[in-house]
Amino acid sequence: MEDLLKHKGLRKKLVDRMKEKGIIDENVLGAIGKVPRHLFYFDSTFADKAYDDIAFQIGDGQTISHPYTVALQSQLLDVKKGDKILEIGTGSGYQTAVLMELGAKVFSVERQKNLYDKTKQLLPGMGYDAKLFYGDGYKGLPHYAPFDKIIVTCGAPEIPSSLLGQLKLSGVLVIPLGNKEQIMTTLVKTGENEYHKEEFGEFRFVPMLQDKAKGL
Ligand code: SAH
User: Fold this and answer.
1) Is 92's C-beta closer than 6 angstroms to any atom of ligand 1?
2) Maximum Cα–Cα distance for the chain, whole Å?
3) Mutate to test the pocket of ligand 1, among 37, 62, 136 (most ligand atoms within 8 A of CB)
């Protein structure tokens, strides 16, 4: 599949919709305008839906997040060029690509082997050189810590303490918190064990699952 003029047109409309919905970070809007979202639909039959503001099944019972959710989480992360970012829940890799367009170095963890394999194929081919890991996001990536920012793209019943431990001072964690529904939450690390918390409305994510599989 290619990135055609029609896709660029659809992206421009999507960017306008993101503005209407309250996204103001020009860099985020620029990234949404650049990343060819239709190429992240593993099943090309549905690629024309890629620029509607909807979540979508990408196989293995998982979804690619709404563009608005991706835009908002990216805006809340306040990405600076060169930021080292940990992402939990690689999924399709779309959010990963948006963060890379923002100039971040992205380390992303996925617990579903199928998705990990597909996305590991896909992203480099599109020029996105992210560091992808198959593993359990609850553990984070202690060997690569600390991170400037951490983004969780699945619904977490509670804040995983290991992730907080891997955040730099002044770093930001963006995490949807809750079981059936989640409250988008940010925590800024203001001291060794001090955080400033803010909430940004209700969302629905697939759950962040605990891993019982061996080796994860
Ligand atoms: N950022 C993705 C959203 C994918 S949906 C995108 O833009 O497409 C959330 C993903 O989190 C799913 O792929 C799911 O398998 C993954 N996930 C759930 N629990 C996890 C865990 N404990 N560790 C890592 N990934 C997890």
Assistant:
1) yes
2) 50
3) 62
Question: Using 50, 70 and 90 to split pLDDT, how confident is the model at 53?
Answer: confident
Distance 208 CA to ligand 1 centre (A): 7
Closest to 124 in 3D by CA, of 141, 106, 149, 137? 106
SS3 (DSSP) at 5: helix
Q: Would you place residue 154 in the very low, low, confident or very high pLDDT band (cuts 50, 70, 90)?
A: very high
Q: Which of 44, 65, 74, 162 is catalytic?
A: 65
Q: Distance (Å, rounded) from C-alpha 107 to C-alpha 121?
A: 16
- For the chain, list the domains and their CATH numbers: 5-203 (3.40.50.150)
pTM of the complete model: 0.95
